[in-house]
């Protein structure tokens, strides 16, 4: 009987696996085309009969990218902005999620709803008010004008996600820690923090990717001081309306993608367990 059921299920399982494979190919194809175009010589890129392979790989596009005078500075600026946003947003979100989950105070529900409302507002609608705010505080043309908005936009999602992880930790564990003589700070950092760490990793991935790939704030708030620009702005060096350097654009995009892939590989295990915990909650 079980053998018959397995045979009936098998076509559906094969169809599901084939669908998953097809979706994976569709999602990965733009990444493959980007890397392929970065290695293609200029003649093949501009050809009217594009081919999904190249027999003459070239590093000329990468030489032009690394030959740019300010490319290294843009790379370090992106690392500094993304790293600061990840650490600061994770720390603030952890403390805020603990506060709204473990403590009872007035307007707690209102505060949580405000987090959701803030998440619903489009970033584009707030860019102009943020521009005037940064101008009044003298933060235009500084990395602070990129760090502060990204921390603010990362927090609502991170707090809501971490709230589920904090809530999943039994209050009996907290009471047992206090009975054993642990202070609130010790429970917070030595017991609760390791338990919700997978959730912190999951939220950090989203914060890192959104900050690393940001073009809107970098274009809006870094007006004249190019020494404060980040990597997405470096792509504009290779894009000219009359004569775009597509090889340079693809090579710069490939270099820009590498830190995201490295970060994702490093936190992959924690990310899977973190997302699993969020779904379970």
Summarize the structure.
The protein has helices at 2-39, 42-45, 60-66, 71-102, 108-120, 123-136, 144-168, 171-179, 184-195, 197-212, 216-221, 231-238, 246-266, 268-280. It has 281 residues and is mainly alpha-helical.
Kindly list the characteristics that best describe this protein.
single chain, 281 residues, mainly alpha, MetI-like fold, 2 domains, 14 helices, 78% helix, globular, transport, transmembrane, membrane, Sugar transporter membrane protein
Could you say which structural class the secondary elements and strand pairing correspond to? Answer: mainly alpha
The CATH superfamily of the largest domain appears as: MetI-like
Quick check: average pLDDT? 87
CATH fold label of the largest domain: MetI-like fold
How many separate domains? 2
Question: Strand-and-helix sequence, N→C?
Answer: HHHHHHHHHHHHHH
Q: Quote the beta fraction.
A: under 5%
Report the strand count.
Answer: 0
**N/C terminus separation:** 36 Å
Tell the overall outline: globular
């Amino acid at each position: 009987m079980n053998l018959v059921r397995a045979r009936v299920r098998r076509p559906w399982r094969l169809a599901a696996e084939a669908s998953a494979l097809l979706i994976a190919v569709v999602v990965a194809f733009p990444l493959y085309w980007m890397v392929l175009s970065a290695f293609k010589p200029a003649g093949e890129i501009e050809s009217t009969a594009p081919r999904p392979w190249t027999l003459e790989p070239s590093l000329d596009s990468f030489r032009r990218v690394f030959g740019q005078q300010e490319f290294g500075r843009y790379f370090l600026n992106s690392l500094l902005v993304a790293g600061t946003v990840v650490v600061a947003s994770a720390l603030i979100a952890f403390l805020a999620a603990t506060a709204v989950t473990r403590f009872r105070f007035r307007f707690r529900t209102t505060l949580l709803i405000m987090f959701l409302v803030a998440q619903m507002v489009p970033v584009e609608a707030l860019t102009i008010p943020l521009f005037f705010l940064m101008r009044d505080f003298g933060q235009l043309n500084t990395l602070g004008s990129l760090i502060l908005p990204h921390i603010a936009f990362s927090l609502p999602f991170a707090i809501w996600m971490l709230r589920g992880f904090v809530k999943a930790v039994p209050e009996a564990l907290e009471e047992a820690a206090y009975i054993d003589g642990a202070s609130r700070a010790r429970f917070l950092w030595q017991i609760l923090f390791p338990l919700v760490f997978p959730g912190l990793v999951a939220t950090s991935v989203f914060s890192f990717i959104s900050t690393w790939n940001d073009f809107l704030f970098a274009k809006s708030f870094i007006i004249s001081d190019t020494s404060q620009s980040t990597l997405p702005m470096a792509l504009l060096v290779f894009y000219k309306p009359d004569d775009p350097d597509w090889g340079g654009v693809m090579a710069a995009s490939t270099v820009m993608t590498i830190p995201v892939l490295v970060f994702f590989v490093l936190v992959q295990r924690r990310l899977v367990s973190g997302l699993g915990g969020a779904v379970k909650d």
